[in-house]
Amino acid sequence: MPAKGKHRRPKSSSSLTRGFVAAGTGGAALALPLIGATGAHAADKAAAPVALPQKAPLQQVPQQRTAERPAAAPQADSKKTDTRTYSVVTGDNLSKIAAEENVRGGWQKLYTDNKSVVGDDPSMIFPGLKLTLGGKAPAGSGSAGGAKATAPAPQKQADRTERTERTEQRVEQRTEQRTEKRAEQRTQKRVERQQSSGSGFSAPVPSGVSTPYRASGGSWSSGYHTGVDFRASSGTPVKAVGAGTVVSAGWGGAYGNEIVIKHNDGRYSQYAHLSALNVRSGQSVSGGQQIGYSGSTGNSTGPHLHFEIRTGPGYGSDIDPLGYLRSNGVPV
Q1: Is residue 278 domain-resident?
Q2: 158-185 tens-digit pLDDT
Q3: Does one domain contain both 292 and 243?
Q4: Which residues are the active-site residues?
Q5: 149, 73: one domain
Q6: Residue 309's CB: how many other CB atoms inside 10 A?
Q7: 132 and 215 share one domain
Q8: How many CB atoms lie within 10 A of CB 58?
Q9: What average pLDDT does range 86-90 have in this prediction?
Q10: Is the sign of the CA dihedral 314, 320, 323, 325 positive or negative?
Q11: pLDDT on residue 297
Q12: What region does 133 belong to: left with phi over 0, alpha with psi -120 to 50, or beta?
């Protein structure tokens, strides 16, 4: 018993001794374990909130990504559905395509989206050109058949060349017309000079004869042409062939507006189918003086000048008019 008590007592004593030692060492010995335990416990508490937030985002990231992917897919499908490609055919223009394909914003939007393909001129599109409907065309896209995106440039250059050629042709035509007109005017003046004589006689108009004197036919009451017809468009100035006095100026029935002049040699000249008169009866005129304008009045099939030389003032006293002019130095 005592041995057992001894044996139990040291254990108890040892345990108490350690307890007392811990307590007996003073506050410092006791405080150190307490401070250490408290610090360790505080460190565990401080470490716990740091670890938890790190785990929470790791668990939420896959869920967030999974939620975003279905939302992005319809947007991509929507873009693919809204964006179409149209191939230009003969007769197309941007306005027509925008109307037929229901392009929002009209041809202006279609042109803006495809300006990199069409170029600076919205009217310059050609068959086979690829246009994007519902979105901007990618840079470098263009015509079918592997043609380069710069295909419109040669077309524009060809159009500019064609316009330049047309302009040059118009300039050449106007130059030729002016040259021809000046040549015609010079010819007319030369003919007038040639048809004028030193005796004061001249041709009535500076043109050739269309119907000769004494041509036969049923168109004339006498059965033949009593004068000559000079080619003259309506409004051509008509001149007195020589000096004299106006016998009559006015309406002459089948002759229309006519003028009859008595010349100093006793012969009479007649000018018929006139559109206008510049002289009156009793007026004195000189050779080469303008007396009226040619026309197609009276019994006439078209504008011309009917000219006669007579031995008397009235119808039926006609003589060869060209022979009379030539005898007075007029080369007709």
Answers
A1: yes
A2: 777 888 888 888 888 888 888 888 887 7
A3: yes
A4: 304
A5: no
A6: 23
A7: no
A8: 9
A9: 90
A10: positive
A11: 95
A12: beta
